[in-house]
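hey can u check if this looks right to u? its 377 residues, i copy pasted from the old doc so theres a chance i mangled smth
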Amino acid sequence: MVQSKPGDLEFSVSQFVAVLNQTLEFAYPDVVIIGELANLRVSKNRWIYFDLKDESASVKFFGTVYQLPGPLENGMLLKVRGQPRLHNLYGFSVNVQSIQPAGEGSIRKAAELLQAKLTAEGLFDQARKRQLPYPPARIGLVTSKQSAAYADFIKILSARWQGIDINLIDVQVQGEVAPAQISAALEQFNALAEPPEALVIIRGGGSAEDLAAFSTEQVTRAVAASRVPTLVAIGHEVDLSLAELAADVRASTPSNAAELLVPDRTHVLLGLKAAIEQLDQAGQRQLQTARNNLQRQVLALDQIFSHLMNQTRQEIAGRRQLLEALNPEAVLRRGYAIVRSQGRAIRSIKALAAGGIVDVRLSDGSFKATIDEVGND
């Protein structure tokens, strides 16, 4: 560097580039520029080149495809953070640090382009959806701890159910750093040795720009890639982010997320009470039915027993009559006698001889007799 006249500085080209970059780095370490996207091109599937312009100026930008929030089209309004630099060969440009669609129309267009891309990949297919455990014992919560959405979610969850282990990762839910923080939180939960049973991502209402982080490719893919089932509730019921489309379950609001996640213990207790009453009534009916059946069985058995007793009595009476008819004493009472000789009953006249002595038994006694004569009738 030489001085040609007082107050003038002379630089070589390289010196000028170095000094200017030092000056820019000191004065403007990074800048945020909003403008209309033009001349977007991708080189070697890695580098991106584009311009941002307004009515009277245009600025060149350089970055990588990994800094894209999703598919972009020329004409979209973007907010780009970067470092202004003067390149030795290619002139002045801004090295990109982050890119965000700006303005409701561009945000909506960016979301539509990304949705079409991810839909073609099957990222939103219903077949990918999983059921959430109901209720879960442990949940991972990704949101801003200072937000009204967090307060509403915790309030309703605690009022409806107790005993759930809630592990919170506090993140920013809007702005440039939000997508990276939200994605990192999801990855952190999934990397745990014992991950939660469900991941809940919530954010309250806001403008399209406020909610834009949840329609970025980075966050949407992180939700879809989670091995833990996800529940996402962003904004109000009319708001619909791509993260919600990729989630296993979508809730209309953070409060609705709490309602979907756990039952209302008041209703559960009433249901249990009703179930106990129904069981008690059913038990009473079954007990009464059993008593009636037992009474009918006892009555039937009593009738069978009475019938058997009568039948037995009749059989005994018949046998008594038969025994009475066969009883020798009864025969004797009818005027018959038993004649014995030498202790044996005489059944034939041939067993007797004149002069023999026989024993004769009558119904009321016995006597001995001498046979005078034996004859045949």
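The radius of gyration is 55 Å.
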